[in-house]
């Protein structure tokens, strides 16, 4: 990371509802609201999921890589002026591909680009990389609602 984080972990938790142990974004590196975001997840051996996935061969579960991408995408969506102070719910995952395993000590860089926005939804292209190599990619669809709405 060069310079200071655009958003700290506390600022992220002020925006999205995820909390420990399932808030996976450590900081936001770059942000162009409504367009693109780059965020970081430092993968550590202390993650609770490594106890069972897999003992003696710790691998970050693919579903949690997708969740990490979804959290970065929700930051991007909720920083868009029309969706600020709302909640983004993951509605669909398309074209999900896993290309390499993610292990303790890896730094996941999350690259999210907004491809479509409508009144109550957003679609993003999401890519997670480790050392510049693609680990996972997907198209994610979000439904956006008021924070207290029952959807």
From TrEMBL:
InterPro entries: FabA_FabZ (IPR013114), FabZ (IPR010084), HotDog_dom_sf (IPR029069)
Gene Ontology MF terms: (3R)-hydroxyacyl-[acyl-carrier-protein] dehydratase activity
Location(s) in or outside the cell: Cytoplasm
GO cellular component: cytoplasm; membrane
Pfam families with a match to the protein in the record: FabA (PF07977)
Keyword Lipid biosynthesis: yes
UniProt catalytic activity: a (3R)-hydroxyacyl-[ACP] = a (2E)-enoyl-[ACP] + H2O
EC code: 4.2.1.59
Membrane as UniProt keyword: no
GO terms under biological process: fatty acid biosynthetic process; lipid A biosynthetic process
Residues at the active site: 53
This protein's UniProt keywords: Cytoplasm, Lipid A biosynthesis, Lipid biosynthesis, Lipid metabolism, Lyase
Database matches in CDD domains: FabZ
Record family assignment: Belongs to the thioester dehydratase family. FabZ subfamily.
Role summary: Involved in unsaturated fatty acids biosynthesis. Catalyzes the dehydration of short chain beta-hydroxyacyl-ACPs and long chain saturated and unsaturated beta-hydroxyacyl-ACPs.
Name under which the protein is recorded: 3-hydroxyacyl-[acyl-carrier-protein] dehydratase FabZ
Gene field: fabZ
């Amino acid at each position: 990371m060069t310079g200071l984080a655009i958003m700290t972990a506390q600022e992220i938790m002020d925006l999205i509802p995820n909390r420990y142990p399932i808030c996976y974004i450590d900081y936001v590196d770059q942000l162009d609201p409504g367009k693109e975001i780059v965020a970081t997840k430092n993968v550590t051996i202390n993650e609770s999921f490594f106890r069972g996935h897999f003992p003696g061969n710790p691998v970050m579960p693919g579903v949690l890589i997708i969740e990490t991408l979804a959290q970065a995408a929700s930051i991007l969506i909720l920083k868009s002026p029309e969706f600020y102070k709302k909640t983004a719910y993951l509605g669909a995952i398309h074209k999900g591909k896993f290309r390499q395993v993610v292990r303790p000590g890896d730094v996941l860089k999350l690259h999210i680009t907004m491809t479509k926005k409508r009144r109550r939804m957003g679609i993003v292209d999401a890519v997670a990389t480790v050392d510049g190599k693609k680990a996972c990619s997907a198209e994610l669809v979000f439904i956006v609602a008021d924070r207290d709405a029952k959807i």
